[in-house]
């Protein structure tokens, strides 16, 4: 199936004007499938970590959002053990005017501002609410262990 | 038509060099075809006419100035916000009940009444205007020494004779070349929307290569606004630009696809109260004209690629709907609500109104060369006879089966299945006759041998349909329908017969009708799609009937003859009918 112009343009722009701390590289054999890395934002428990994600553009993209998940283990109230991300723009709030770049930026922002009130990983969110400092320390530790650059 | 005005007359007999008189195309003179501009061939940007025509693209019809806070109304016309007529109360509008829907604005261009709520600033045209004003003023400052005298040449709104005096237009001097001068003249309110312009070099202007200057200017303006012409959904130059009431513009097909998924604007997320049949929503005439005049090759290329893109790649040219069983000649009613199938149906309607219907491969069995697919390989090509679009975007689709097919190759297009199919037809009547003769003959001699051993259950027509000729099979099946009618079987009710028509007299189509009305499992009925002879189909139907009639007798299996249809005999007529699920 021919690749829509939109995906080609987005890919070109991602390559030509990369976002700081984010990279997204399409697979050679499947240009709808991207290897993504996001650097943990400064002053967040994820600082210093490099997180791998996989991103897939479904057939009816951009009518439906990209499918994306963390491959690197991460301790975060809005990301579950399978790496699935709880982010409104990846679900009902998706709009075809959004793009890969904006989604990755949203995910990077989510790392900087975990939201335990809208959790996906319930146990993590629980810990986050009970003892935020301890949770942040765990997140730091996981980052050191699993998200080595 | 070219004789309404002669431009050379409009210039005073001074010694200023007069630019070569332009060949005024006839459409420049006919005032009532402006909407048709987009149909016209593109103009090279370096003649007098072009500068005039290009500026007219962004002139307000009401005030004749370049648009300021342009509003594009649902009728597709654009005027400045300040040029909108006062709203007036609309009659017979009860929904939506808000005040701004109760008030209407009459379009000064076409006279259509638009709801005030839907008359908002056009974001794209506004951005274009801001860029143009900026670029033109910078250009003019840079090329101030190229001073031209522009004379407005008024055009009467019809062919009526107008006195010389009334024809007198404004005269002004502007720097920057023809394009810049014409724009500035419009800004200054000295250029009527309909008027033409005559250009001449002002005394002291030594510029020789005016055309190059204008061309450069044109190109810089074109580059400046080109990104505004991209659709936010497909990232291409907009094709058939269609504007939402919130003032955002997309390709028509991109907006339609977006609204298939959600009724909010992709950019501002406001609700978009547009008819789901955007097909009939007028396009944004202003943007469409700009695109057609300034980027004619791009527009042509886009039209071409879209028609290519919407056609599946290679030979995968038939949309496939994996949903239910459909039968040749029989109606099939569908309720479409999933966005991807809305898109598919729309494309079908724009195309040949045909698509393939396939059943789910629930048992995940291998489908011939295709391997395990999510659908069964045989299906029915359906023709859309009636397409009813509901206000919320869902649709009711009435189809009728055209022919049977087998999927040879398949893929996906925008979320739905597409495939290359091969028509499945019956063998010729000659072959059919030979097949019948051989089969009946063989069965009869086998039955004679078998029955000679006095088995407890002898081989008869009841358990071995091969013993019957094709016509006997057909008659037996029809007789069953008559018996059932006499017993007022519920599945032969008036209602069903009305939907599927009366029992056909053609043995070839009878099995499809029978399958359509008989309440048995679809997997059983599916077997009919694979048949290639009338006899084969009638045998299948015949065995269904035997199963239904003999449900309590627990017929023993007889040789391999009953192989393809097996009954799970259960108590109760209906239970057995509905539980007649394949065990084959
Ligand atoms: Zn105006
Ligand atoms: Zn109008
Ligand atoms: Zn588009
Ligand atoms: Zn909007």
TrEMBL record, chain A:
PROSITE patterns cross-referenced by the UniProt entry: UBC_1, UBC_2
Pfam families referenced in this protein's UniProt entry, alphabetically: UQ_con
Listed InterPro entries: UBC, UBQ-conjugating_AS, UBQ-conjugating_enzyme/RWD
Enzyme class of the recorded protein, top EC level: transferase
Active site: 86 (glycyl thioester intermediate)
Entry-linked SUPFAM superfamilies: UBC-like
Gene3D superfamilies associated with the record: Ubiquitin Conjugating Enzyme
Family according to the record: Belongs to the ubiquitin-conjugating enzyme family.
Designated name of the protein: E2 ubiquitin-conjugating enzyme
TrEMBL record, chain B:
Example GO molecular function: ubiquitin protein ligase activity
Top-rank taxon: Eukaryota
Residues annotated as domain Lon N-terminal: 315-549
PROSITE patterns in the record: LON_N (PS51787), ZF_RING_1 (PS00518), ZF_RING_2 (PS50089)
Start and end residues of each RING-type domain: 60-110, 231-269
Keywords: Metal-binding, Zinc, Zinc-finger
Pfam family membership, one: zf-RING_UBOX
InterPro entries according to UniProt: Lon_prtase_N (IPR003111), Lon_prtase_N_sf (IPR046336), PUA-like_sf (IPR015947), Znf-RING_euk (IPR027370), Znf_RING (IPR001841), Znf_RING/FYVE/PHD (IPR013083), Znf_RING_CS (IPR017907)
Name of the protein: LON-domain-containing protein
Species whose genome carries this gene: Sporormia fimetaria CBS 119925
